[in-house]
Amino acid sequence: MTRTLVDASDRWKPLSQLLTELLDRIAAEIPGCVGAALTTGHDGGPLSVLATHGVAERLAPAEVRHGGPIADAAATGDVVTTDDLFADPRWPGLHRDALADRWRQVRGVVAFPGPWDDGGTLVLSAVLDGPVGPEVRAVLARYEKLTADLLVVAEAAAAGDSAQVLAMLASRAAIEQAKGAITALRRCGADEAWNTLRRTSQEFNVKVRDLAVALVEHLGQVPVRQPDGTIPITPDHPARDAARQLWTAFTADRPVGP
């Protein structure tokens, strides 16, 4: 059973059915999947479980409260996996004995984080009845961008502000361009590219979207083409300095720091 954890007053209500269908699709594509969840956070604030499928209806909120792959993925920006959730010493607050019988089938869990706006993080997670295989991460990676786009539309529908909608779309476009550039340059996955942007923005105290535009402009030595009708994102000096240092770290293959 898939459940969307929203009510009539919730800002995600306009897309509740789409979120439900999204998790249904993810669960159907992953062999042995017994649960899936979509969780979001913003600017280090509390996490919200927006929608669940199967056993994740109870497991995802438990991970948010007591610690688990979802909470760790949101905090670090890294993909978090375990082949046996309740035997994993990283999360002593999760106890199988206190759970319903159907939870006894839970083994592997994957939590896949990604951006959905500047300062916002989403986590797609899957719960399995066995160890985690490589196909699980691949499925979640394919759905991460679609999920982020759905959340942008949901936010826009709730806000009813066309300027905000356009700003969010511009931010998403800039981040995707930068992720693509890092992926090509470093020959890494999209999740590693996002984590690089996220950590660098935190280290230099600049917005992710400003860093993204500055990095792409630094690489191409031309202004980034931004979506028509949007207010252009113009990086300030700190963002451009962060982009320059990130590029230097790439070419020198050394850690990034202010």
UniProtKB/TrEMBL annotation:
InterPro entries hit by this protein: ANTAR, WH-like_DNA-bd_sf
Domain of life: Bacteria
Domain ANTAR: 155-216
Pfam families: ANTAR (PF03861)
Coiled coil: none
Name used for this protein in its record: ANTAR domain-containing protein
Lineage of source species: Bacteria, Bacillati, Actinomycetota, Actinomycetes, Pseudonocardiales
